[in-house]
Structure formats: structure tokens, C-alpha cells
Amino acid sequence: MKELEDRIRKDGIVREGNVLKVDNFLNHQCDVSLYDQMGAEWARLFEGKRIDKILTIETSGIGIACVASQHFGSVPVVFARKTESTNLDGEQYRTEIRSFTKNRVYNVIVAKRFLNPGEHVIIIDDFLAMGCALNGLLEICDEAGVVVEGIGIAIEKGFQPGGKELRERGYQVESLAIVDSMDPETGDIVFA
């Protein structure tokens, strides 16, 4: 998606360790107009598929998924929590995921009442690199008996294996910007 690639070129910051900071518009300060364009593009890419819910993970995926929901008939957005809460009651799906950027393991939780067997979902998230978060969400979907119609990603690091592995497993992964390479010394970002 050209608008997203242009914004990454303009405001993205490349750091050592394959880190791409996009907090100016995507995952700290939110450009809602850009989110809306992203949602419209995912709706086009997943056109014709039954979508009952959108699944994401806190925190960066929530805003993107909520705006995208409007392009899928305002379907509910369910987000996996990374922390226990006294507000979580009833039975829950749980899995562990490793965060690439935070270098730690999270216990991820979704209340069972929000994912019902036979529902059709798409998963939306801000980044795809190694695929750890998505694999955790897919485990929850499998346990819940929901049909995963596809995965929408804002930015994929194409030089890391997550996207390739998910596609090889048969998932429709639609990344709006795929970074082929990035150089922390020059700040150059090359897209697929």
C-alpha cells in the first residue's frame, strides 16, 4: 500500500537489531486517517470472505483493528490480553508468546465467550517478523474452533521468516507494506 510505504519512508526510524520505529503514526501516536485507508485495503483484499470477528493482540493492534472493523460491517473486535485482570472471568483460552521487541514471554488470554466454534475471523496486527504473536493467536483460534479467513498485517519484515512460514502453512497473509531490508546507518528502507 503506497500510502503506508510513503509514511514509513517519511517517519519511520531504523534502529540496530532490525527495529523499525513507527510510533509517530502507527503504534503510539495513531494516524486514524491512515488506519482507515488500511482497513479499506484489507476489506478489498479479503472481499467475499465471511468475517464474523476480528482478532488482535493488545496493545498496538487494537486501534488498527477497531478502525478496520468499520470496513467489515462493524464486526466485533476481540483482543488477546497480555496481563491478568480481575475483570477477566469465566473460562479462557491461554497461550504463551515471545515478544520480539520486548524480548520477553507473555501469557496471552482470550475469554472463551468471545470466540465461538464455527465463527470466521481475520487476525489483524501491526507487525509481522518472526511470527510468534500470530502463532499464539492461531493456537487460540484452533482451540476455539474458529475458521481463520486470513491475516492482515500493517508492516511485515520480509527478511524474517514469519510471513513465509505462515503462507507455507496455507494462511492468506495480506501485509500492506513488506520491508525487504533496512539499514540503521543510512536509515534506508527497501520494500518488496
UniProtKB/TrEMBL annotation:
Question: Which superkingdom is the protein from?
Answer: Bacteria
Q: Which residues form the Phosphoribosyltransferase domain?
A: 48-148
Q: Which reaction does it catalyse?
A: XMP + diphosphate = xanthine + 5-phospho-alpha-D-ribose 1-diphosphate
Q: What is its main location?
A: cytoplasm
Question: Which Gene3D superfamilies does this one have?
Answer: 3.40.50.2020
GO BP annotations, alphabetical order: purine ribonucleoside salvage; xanthine metabolic process; XMP salvage
- What is this protein's record name? Xanthine phosphoribosyltransferase
